[in-house]
Design brief:
The protein is an all-alpha fold. It is built from 18 helices and 2 strands. The N and C termini lie far apart (about 110 Å).
């Protein structure tokens, strides 16, 4: 049977035409998809700028469906879910990104960091810790270490917090963390036996020599052990190293001076400090060292000549006889109520006020944010 070349002549043009038609269909579909994806993306961006997060999420979901391989859309969608508090959906988005084999190393690290933030915001600290640990050696390592430090502070795991602070302190751009390490060691010492507490506090002192806290707590240990003279020397050393912290040191210093018979040394030191910078706490320390009540009250009068102080006035009036003495208790009660807010300490970072001085603010969790001076003196 002879082969008919006519079919070949007809077949080639037909095959070419069909191929051309199929390619046009593919190009048309591609153009449609490319138009849809940016349109949905920009619509979502417009909603986001107008703070319409619900509509923005719908637009980004549509964009992701049209172009599921675009990682930027996934990141935008995951961040939106996290901002809205929809942490489970944010986790699913970032886990989906991490499961992709075609994801670049930079985007994988970014997705891992975003996933850690999802867990952190959701309060799942164990999962957040695990996710943050995986960022070691990545571009997000420093941010991960700072987040881990916050987790360990929150859970009061001072040993691990100390480890992370050492890593951050060794970094070039993370700042100084020696003071934090000193606080962590002091926190550990507060729950340790006396011998171990002594070692931890000595280490804290070596880590941050200018910090007053290790010396204060070492002095408290010495007082408990019956070494009032050693406690006094430590507190004097702390005052000389950090003069601004003297108001915090006055009460234990006076107690140690009285217990060790060194009232004259304490008085000379406090009077010299008071002349340089009048302070209510230093003034109270001097009055505690005065054996004559009249001399003690006279100090408050002299203070009022230098500094207008309602606190000092209330303390002076408390020991005076008024012309209408029957009204004295009511007047005194009103004065004491009025001066209470003035005797508090105020956080310099967030403004949180407290009756006692804190090394870490209970409000904003900042360290060393409380000045040693009270509200009236700021």
């Amino acid at each position: 049977m002879d082969f008919d070349l006519t079919w070949l002549l007809w077949g080639l043009p037909i095959a070419f035409a069909l191929g051309w038609f199929a390619s046009r269909l593919d190009l048309r579909q591609l153009r449609i998809e490319n138009r849809l994806a940016p349109k949905a993306y920009f619509r979502g961006l417009n909603f986001l700028l107008n703070e319409q997060q619900d509509q923005a999420i719908d637009a980004f979901i549509e964009a992701v469906q049209n172009d599921p391989d675009t990682s930027e859309l996934h990141f935008a969608l995951g961040n939106l879910f996290r901002r809205r508090g929809e942490y489970e959906r944010a986790v699913r988005v970032h886990e989906h990104l991490l499961s992709r084999a075609d994801l670049s190393r930079a985007d994988r690290q970014r997705a891992q960091h975003a996933l850690a933030l999802d867990y952190l915001k959701a309060g799942l600290l164990d999962r957040a810790e695990e996710a943050l640990r995986k960022l070691e050696g990545s571009a997000y390592e420093e941010q991960a270490l700072l987040a881990l430090l916050a987790i360990y502070e929150r859970s009061r795991d001072w040993v691990l917090a100390c480890e992370i602070a050492r890593k951050l302190d060794a970094g070039a751009s993370a700042g100084q963390f020696a003071g934090r390490q000193s606080h962590y060691l002091c926190e550990q010492a507060s729950a340790a036996a006396p011998a171990q507490a002594e070692q931890l506090l000595q280490k804290a002192l070596k880590t941050a020599p200018s910090s007053p806290r290790p010396r204060m707590e070492l002095a408290a240990l010495r007082r408990k052990a019956g070494d009032a003279r050693g406690a006094f020397d430590l507190l004097v050393e702390a005052a000389e190293t950090m003069p601004a912290a003297l108001p915090l040191l006055v009460k234990p210093l006076v107690e140690s001076a009285i217990a060790s018979g060194r009232q004259d040394d304490a008085r000379r030191m406090l009077e010299a400090a008071y002349e340089q910078l009048p302070s209510l706490d230093v003034l109270d320390g001097l009055t505690a060292l005065d054996s004559d009540p009249e001399a003690a009250r006279a100090r408050y009068v002299r203070h009022l000549k230098r500094e207008p102080s309602l606190v000092a006035a209330a303390k002076w009036i408390a020991g005076e006889k008024l012309e209408h003495e029957q009204f004295h208790p009511d007047v005194q009660r009103a004065l004491d109520q009025a001066v209470k807010p003035l005797t508090r300490y105020r956080c310099a970072a967030c403004g949180f006020e407290a009756k006692q001085h804190f090394w870490q603010c209970p409000g904003c969790q900042a360290w060393d944010s409380y000045p040693a001076r009270r509200v009236e003196e700021l």
